[in-house]
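Hi V.,

You were right to ask for the full record rather than a summary. Here it is.
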Amino acid sequence: MNLHRLVVVSVGALILIFAAPAISGPAKTIPLYGGTESITIPAGSMLRFKKIDQDSSVYFDGPVEISGTFYYSENHNDDGIDRALYVDPDAATIARLPAYKDHGLADHIYLSNEEAFVKAAISPDKLAALKKDGTHFISGKADVMADQFQAGIECDVPNAQAHFLSLVQPRVMAALKNPAGDEGC
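Predicted structure:
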């Protein structure tokens, strides 16, 4: 049953990835700050403009795949655990995300829903390393699905965040003795 579920999820993800350009529109530019800046949603993006708030942060609906190097840290304090999770996006991700005309895209994309990310992506032994003196971050490569993408500019520096949904599943593979079923002579 688990293999069936994995195949269904994988096929669904492939449909979303390959259908994205067909169901999304051309590039869309949104003017900001009285026309002195703008943000462009690239052609083929699954993200749709939602709103601009009073601080000129731009909100988007829709799923987005974010890949790159992640960094996770935990700081324990009197109020509980203060977590930080962000991804330094790779070139493919940068091409998929909205960017400002003059400011570009943020160097880091902060992800909310940290606990779900930790459960899905970080092994317990790596997580235990955070409790040792001198270890402040866990880092690795990640390819995640997210939504609720948001971009803003603060102190003339772009920032971005999104809500973690899940890890992108690897391709389904099987080990076979002979793919054709032919044993030889």
